[in-house]
Amino acid sequence: MPTVYNWQLGRPMEYPYDAAYPRYQFAFVFNINRCIGCQTCTMACRSTWTFSSGQEHMWWNNVETKPYGGYPQFWDSKLLGLLDQANPDGQVWNNIKTDPRLKPYGVFEGKTIFEATHPAEAAPQNRVLGYLPTDREWRSPNIYEDTGTGATWKPGEYGKTAALPEHKIWFFYLQRICNHCTYPACLAACPRQAIYKRQEDGVVLIDQSRCRGYKKCVEACPYKKAMYRPTAKVSEKCVACYPRLEGRDEIITPDGEPIESRCMSACVGKIRLQGLIRKEYDGRWSNDPGNPLHYLIREEQVALPLYPQFGTEPNGFYIPPRWAPRAYLEQMFGPGVEQAIERYVCPSRELLAIMQLFRATRPVIFRYKILQGPKIFEREVTLPSGKKKTLEIFNDTIIGYSKNGREAVRVTVEEPTFERDKQHPNSI
């Protein structure tokens, strides 16, 4: 197999095709701490893309409750089990050898889904470790919703189950769409070469004129976001609402600028921030400090990839939930969890300002500028590690700019309030 460099693993890895990179890469950050599990994003995607015959099981966007929920059911635990079976006790990180640019999370010393040996019963021609979910596992997109786990409280311990840094009884919502990976497993597995990454934005699409419905993409995708449509006998997947990225809608984007996808723009909890990351010819991220996603992911490292050990280099990133057990989160997001949570609990001045951009406007934000304001709050906080740190909050103004350099949004850290006159049209 050819060798490509995976910065999330901190090392080269095997991949069936030679490396090729888009000029810009569609990417996003989801803040798990803010999600209220309302499923508005799920229904926004559903009503736009998957409302037809044969798509009844297709939820390109879903919000599942961890640790028990999943769509399809067991999508992650099954693959983690297969990887452990292929490389017993070897799926470990060496987080001592770090480099901010080339290996920010250290080095993953285990095997990816492209490198793991398949079980004996797998077809020898398969190039990616994976499995096909059963029909039963596709039935319930919100199975075990709001179902927690952990030890129940004892007499005299009321309230301690919800104490930080880790709740004794816990669950959290995991919001998922296709990660439009840098090294897609669906693309690697397709025998028809029907799957491709767009050069302009890195969105992964299926050419349905070439697809023959072999389901190799469904089997290979570790996140199970490629889905088979029996009525058309082809596979389908999230398309990142690429017409909106292209700015082709004359009604909502008359100026031709990229706007957020449907799931992003419908988010009630304001947990989502979507963008386009500029890349170099060798696949490295360009040094782009004015881009909010670049700051969150590469500079502040408060947002982490989902199961980076799978090896696909996903372009979806998450701010981990601060109350969940660290061992569980580290398996899911890698060894940067503790640092990410501490930086979220006590945010820097710049990070706090950028957090105001989440779901603040429909145009995709390419640049930001911060106008400094007065200090409005200060207190000592205890970090999850037990260390003390002073949290200072300033009422800064952050301005977000669209692709064409136009001011798209202007928000302040402190939400402005307005007091009405005593007499107004709605007075009783």
Describe the structure.
This protein is an alpha+beta fold and 428 residues long. It folds into two domains: 3-347, Alpha-Beta Plaits; 350-412, no CATH class. Helix content is 17%, strand content 21%. The protein is built from ten helices and 21 strands. It has helices spanning 40-49, 75-86, 185-189, 216-220, 242-245, 262-265, 292-299, 326-333, 337-345, 349-355; strands at residues 3-6, 11-14, 24-31, 62-66, 93-94, 107-108, 149-150, 169-170, 172-176, 195-197, 204-206, 226-229, 234-237, 272-278, 304-305, 316-319, 367-371, 375-382, 388-394, 397-401, 407-412. The strands form nine sheets. It has a four-stranded mixed β-sheet with strand order 14-3-16-15. Strand 10 and strand 11 (204-206) form a beta hairpin. Residues 119-124 have low confidence and may be disordered.
